[in-house]
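Researcher: Next entry in the queue.
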Amino acid sequence: MIRLVVFALLVLVLGYGFSWLADRPGDLSLIWEGQLYQTKLIVAATAIIGLVALVMVLWWLVRVIWTSPHSVTRYFRARKRDRGYQALSTGLIAAGAGNSLLARKMAARSRGLIRADQEPLIALLEAQAALIEGRHDEARAKFEAMTNDPETRELGLRGLYLEAKRLGANEAARQYAEKAADNAPYLPWAAQATLEYRSQAGRWDDAIRLLEQQKAARVIEKTEADRMRAVLLTARATEKLENDPAGARDDALHALKLSADFEPAAIIAAKALFREDKLRKAASILEQAWKAEPHPEIGRTYVRARSGDSAADRLKRAERLEALRPNNVESLLVVAQAALDAQAFAKARTKAEAAARIEPREAAFLLMADIEEAETGDQGRIRHWLSQALKAPRDPAWVADGFVSDKWLPLSPISGQLDAFVWKAPFGQVEGPIEDGAPASIDYALKTLPPVRETRPESPVNDHRIIEIERAATIAEAARPPAKPATPTKETATQAAEPPPFFGGRPDDPGVRAPATEPEPKTRLRLF
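Model: Structure for this entry, 528 residues:
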């Protein structure tokens, strides 16, 4: 387009020049070697322009003839290169489709048409063909050769990394990933793998440094980088909590600045502050986290902030959490548990029932069973609540890759992925027994709750008398010589066949012995 515009402008300039000369006629005289040459000005200008054009054409012809051998050679070389790239393209497509025969054939043709040192994709095609054919040793040799070339070093390291992962050589895979990440931290696969490896080894400082390099190279978004950094800082704070509470506090507070809704960071920060006797600041952090999203671990940490507090003080703190988030399941459960510890059974029962009405799940019914055991000790009512817990949905927990953990972990133990745990209800649980598929309901549970079994109080004096009588009868029975077995008669056989009479009366009657009954074992069934 630019050339066309320049040509048009040149034609316009020439036309304007000729018209200008035509409007101003004149003669041009030239004396050369005593001879006088005279012509019109317009004719002389035309002759000069034609002479220049002729010289240019002659120069072009001479140049074409002079460079023709090189031009012919370059033409055939370009044609050969084009055929080689066409074969290379066809081979890569065949390798992607899994056609090893065609890929191998195209690789050989490409190597014959293109120099391998000029086109590194030929080595990649040969390595891919070897992988398809199952010749992994040859493929690894190709990838190792690629690592020697600066242009293909990253490609070779990725191939070696994938091969090491396939063979289960995690240490070799880690070395390849770290080498690639050190040379090129902008590679997502190398940086992510190295980040996970360093996190698994507990090298939190190296992992944070690598994350900063990724952020500087803009490989990872700022929000995602802040979240990952918060996870790494929380993991490092967890390790520092026992020996270095101040360092754990700084890391956890920094993590909270990066991710304000990260519950594990808030819990670690509060525990570290509790160890430094900074109760007010720790309570403020937990209250802010509770307002954002109530979490049972936050509630337990807040309620049990000081180990020397009484159960009544813990109940007051639990009610403070309920005031921050009223009509919430976690708030009601925290208050119910604190009331149970304080022996306030009426309040504990009311709060647990309210939590079960909002969300009938396992924890609410298990808490009802605990209240029943502490208040009445009736095994029938306890079993009733436990059966409701079996049918209720499971409580939320930290879940990652199908693995359920009772505490937060920075890495998934299944896949090793960083920040994989999510607070949610585990899936795949059985909703209820096969014979009773109805879901748990607090109204139905209260309606079908068996009454409290009445027990008649017994006199301790009479109990002592019964024990003494039984002990004397046992001693006499042991001192009596063994009697010969009597021949059974019809009367004795009839008496033996009759059922024993029903013994009534009070236990304090010395002539009446109540049948011995074993006390029911007070065992509890916990659901996991």
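Model: Residues 429-436, 456-476, 482-528 have pLDDT under 50 and may be disordered.
Researcher: Noted, moving on.
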